[in-house]
Design brief:
Heme Oxygenase, Chain A, mainly alpha, single chain
Length: 260
């Protein structure tokens, strides 16, 4: 089959903008990590403080790699206007004049949970699965097409909902959580909405063949897998009690999981 024939075939099978967007939203509805057991336990107040600490420490590794991922992506962007838009994501996390940034707000959470900041920064306590999943995400953005790298961020379509649930649920259910510790999520509600709108529009405009549309869908699936693996690892380790050597151990962990 000639290249022209392949292009025509791809164009014939192209999803409409409505169908394409709905396909992406269906992926999120099925695969986003708000469906994970650990997520529901966290938001409904069913975790103890040590388990919440474990979540915050492991999620921190994801937070600090967002800017690394976005920097790697920017190094491949040749369009200055897209670079100007994308650099905002790095500044949102790393900070700018008059805005401390998302990473500093994450320290408010870990500080409020009574975690030593130097220990959090060291990332010594993260689970192996967290490291493997997040590192795989950074590698994905470095190695895949620019379209796939950009649209792997489409999980932001579903983030505002989970952030709102987290804010309400954790404030209501934990006496060690307050408005200061929830500062990161309160800021991200609006940021994630704006970021998601841009990436969705980018996906619709730049996925010009059915093959490219499928690559966007697969990029979103990959990213949901990254987030899901992190949640599953937390459940296996801190709910089922199988913490691997070297990972963070809550103070009362041995008391709760000592066998008779």
């Amino acid at each position: 089959m000639s290249n022209l024939a392949k292009k025509e075939l791809n164009t014939e099978n192209l999803l409409t903008e409505f169908e394409f967007e709905q396909r992406l939203r269906d992926i999120g509805a099925e695969r986003y990590h708000d469906n994970c057991k650990f997520h529901h336990l966290l938001h409904s107040g069913k975790l103890n403080k040590g388990q919440v600490q474990a979540w915050a420490i492991n999620r921190y590794y994801y937070q600090i790699n967002i800017s690394i991922k976005d920097s790697a992506l920017m190094s491949r962007i040749k369009n200055p206007s897209l670079r100007r838009i994308w650099i905002k994501r790095i500044l949102d996390h790393d900070g700018r004049k008059g805005d401390e940034g998302g990473i500093e707000r994450w320290y408010k959470l870990t500080d409020g949970l009574g975690l030593d900041r130097d220990y959090v920064k060291s990332t010594d306590g993260i689970l192996p699965a967290t490291k493997f999943a997040v590192d795989a995400y950074v590698s994905f953005v470095k190695e895949k097409s620019l379209l796939e790298g950009v649209t792997s961020s489409l999980t932001e379509l579903f983030a505002p909902k989970i952030h709102k649930e987290r804010i309400v649920g954790m404030l209501e259910n934990y006496d060690f959580i307050n408005d200061i510790t929830m500062a990161y999520f309160k800021k991200r509600v609006d940021q994630a909405t704006d970021d998601a709108d841009f990436v969705l529009d980018y996906a619709i405009k730049n996925a010009k063949t059915r093959e490219e549309q499928e690559s966007v869908c697969n990029a979103l699936k990959f990213k949901t897998d990254v987030l899901w693996v992190m949640q599953d690892a937390l459940y296996h380790s801190y709910i089922n009690g199988h913490v691997p050597p070297g990972a963070f151990l809550p103070e009362d962990f041995n008391d709760r999981y000592t066998e008779d």
